């Protein structure tokens, strides 16, 4: 089974009314909020807000999501300290990366720098999670501490937005 997700993770509480308005689900693991991201959903909002840049800076594994749109989603939700994570694994082989934001600006953190040349560019996910306050539990890493292994993909959450990928 593969593991293909892009998500915004934060300790901050996102604006619940904005989550509903933007049609974004929310998962909570301990003190942390996992906000699933999807390319078609972000294309829809990015074009609506006039921030979608097909040729600009993108992030992701299987799907490349416009960074400007992700930043706008965070702003709309009222969060400023977060990490964007991406995984692209199948059969234990693949890639991962994360970008950390502090006060709504990309922050440089210590960790393994990754760049798979296709969109997953940043630091390793565990270092990013540490930077936003995830403390690993005994015997498991930060990724598993907030149960990210349980989230394999978010495709079914945003099916109604698929038509915006075809525009």
Search tags:
alpha+beta; 5 helices; 10 strands; about 25% helix
How would you describe this protein?
By secondary structure, the chain is α+β, with helices and mostly antiparallel strands. The chain has one domain (6-158). Helices cover 23% and strands 27% of the residues. The chain has helices at 16-22, 39-48, 67-77, 125-131, 142-145; strands spanning 6-10, 27-29, 32-36, 58-59, 65-66, 82-90, 93-102, 105-107, 113-115, 121-123. The protein starts with 5 loop residues before the first strand and ends in a 22-residue tail after the last helix. The mean pLDDT is 86.
Shape: globular
Number of strands: 10
What is the domain total for the residues?
1
Separation of termini?
Answer: 30 Å
Task: From the alpha carbons, calculate the radius of gyration and give it in angstroms.
Answer: 15 Å
- The succession of helices and strands, N to C, reads EHEEHEEHEEEEEHH
- What would the average pLDDT be, to the nearest integer? 86
What class do helices, strands and sheet pairing give? alpha+beta
Strand order of the largest sheet: 2-3-1-6-7-8
Query: Uncertain regions: pLDDT < 50 for 5+ in a row?
Result: none
The portion of residues forming beta strands comes to: 25-35%
- Largest sheet properties: 6 strands, antiparallel
How many helices in DSSP terms? 5
What level of helicity do the residues show? 10-25%
């Amino acid at each position: 089974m593969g593991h293909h997700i892009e998500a915004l993770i934060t300790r901050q509480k996102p604006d619940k009314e904005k989550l509903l308005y933007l049609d974004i689900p929310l998962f909570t693991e301990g003190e942390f909020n996992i906000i699933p991201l999807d390319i078609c959903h972000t294309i829809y909002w990015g074009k609506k807000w006039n921030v979608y840049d097909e040729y600009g800076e993108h992030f992701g594994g299987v799907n490349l999501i416009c960074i400007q749109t992700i930043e706008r989603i965070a702003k709309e939700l009222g969060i400023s300290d977060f990490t964007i994570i991406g995984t692209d694994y199948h059969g234990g082989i693949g890639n991962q990366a994360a970008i950390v934001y502090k006060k709504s600006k990309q922050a440089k953190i210590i960790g393994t720098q990754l760049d798979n040349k296709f969109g997953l560019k940043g630091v390793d996910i565990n270092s990013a999670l540490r930077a936003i306050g995830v403390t690993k539990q005994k015997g498991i890493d930060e990724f598993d501490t907030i149960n990210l292994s349980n989230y394999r993909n978010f495709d079914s959450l945003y099916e109604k937005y698929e038509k915006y990928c075809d525009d």
